[in-house]
Specification:
Elements lengths: L9 H10 L7 E3 L4 E3 L15 H4 L8 H14 L5 E7 L13 H16 L4 E7 L2 H11 L6 E5 L23 H18 L11 E7 L1 H11 L17 E6 L5 E8 L9 E2 L2 E2 L6
Parallel strand pairs: 3-6, 4-5, 4-6
Antiparallel strand pairs: 1-2, 3-7, 7-8, 9-10
Length: 281
């Protein structure tokens, strides 16, 4: 499957997402001019609270019967399938009250739908943010998939993580602490709803598409990789870029691709609706 998936941005974006996640913790030895990064904390295998150990009834005694019961429960609960999630950022949109896609945004969404369809994957569902630009993007993509469940979800609407970015943003507009507090809870609720390992009853790998926003996608990526959330503005998300996250049966999460735009012609590669002139792609 991976060989059919364009990965123009994967190596650079993955490296940026991982390395810059430690920007606020990095220390520089001025004498040797070396960079020192702290060691990562051990991986939390129970990040979704669905590990086998936390999901089966613990042993009440050391009796042989109880041990056999516990081992049987562990075998029955063991997840075996892999969950694949495609995160698609909405296309370029009009800067007016409608916030609908502009002509470039429509073209980007069409090409994203064609590209995802060309992978010939058994897509299970397509869910989009209820913001107009993301809804329109999701609806255009859904045209290329027959008999696939589709719906809108308010949890996927644009917002800002509760943790402020580091380094600090230089934008004139900065969300208030109360706004971050409210949005942050919603972003975390969305993460817990859509990001988790497969249920034991799932026997085949699954593929789902979420059409949403740049801040949401960055939050999901850092959160799923257990990296510092304050690095979210160190990662750029291009319009209609496709991010692929894989959740393995044992709780390990891998970022297969971030913000892939390899299926778009150069003139349709935009960031915040502006053509990326001068960007090295």
């Amino acid at each position: 499957m991976a060989s059919r998936f364009a990965r123009v941005t994967v190596s650079v974006a993955t490296t940026v997402g991982i390395c810059l996640g430690y920007n606020s913790l990095m220390k520089i030895d001025l004498q040797s001019n070396e960079y020192h990064f702290p060691l990562r904390s051990p991986w939390d295998y129970n990040w979704d609270r669905r590990s086998v150990e936390s999901s089966v009834k613990p042993m009440r005694s050391n009796s042989l019967r109880e041990k056999e019961r516990y081992e049987r429960d562990v075998m029955e609960y063991q997840p075996r399938a892999v969950r694949n999630i495609f995160l698609v950022r909405h296309g370029s949109y009009l800067q007016n009250t409608t916030k609908l896609l502009d002509s470039n945004g429509v073209a980007q969404a069409e090409l994203a739908g064609k590209h995802l369809s060309s992978l010939n994957l058994p897509i299970n569902s397509i869910v989009w943010s209820t913001k107009p630009r993301a809804t329109q993007t999701g609806q255009i993509i859904s045209k290329y998939f027959k008999n696939v469940s589709t719906r809108g979800c308010m949890l996927l609407e644009e917002g800002h993580p509760e943790t402020p970015p580091e380094p600090k943003t230089e934008e004139e507009w900065e969300p208030s602490p109360s706004s971050r507090f409210i949005d942050g809870a919603r972003l975390e609720a969305a993460f817990r709803k859509y990001f988790h390992r497969a249920e034991p009853s799932q026997t085949e790998d699954s593929w789902d598409i979420l059409c949403c926003h740049g801040n949401i996608i960055r939050y999901f990526v850092l959160r799923s990789l257990q990296l510092p959330i304050d690095a979210h503005l160190n990662i750029e998300a291009y319009n209609a870029g496709i991010t692929w996250i894989k959740i393995h049966h044992n709780g390990i999460v891998t970022l297969e691709s971030f913000g892939d735009t390899g299926f778009l012609p150069y003139h349709l590669i935009t960031l915040y609706g502006r053509h990326c002139e001068g960007h090295q792609l």
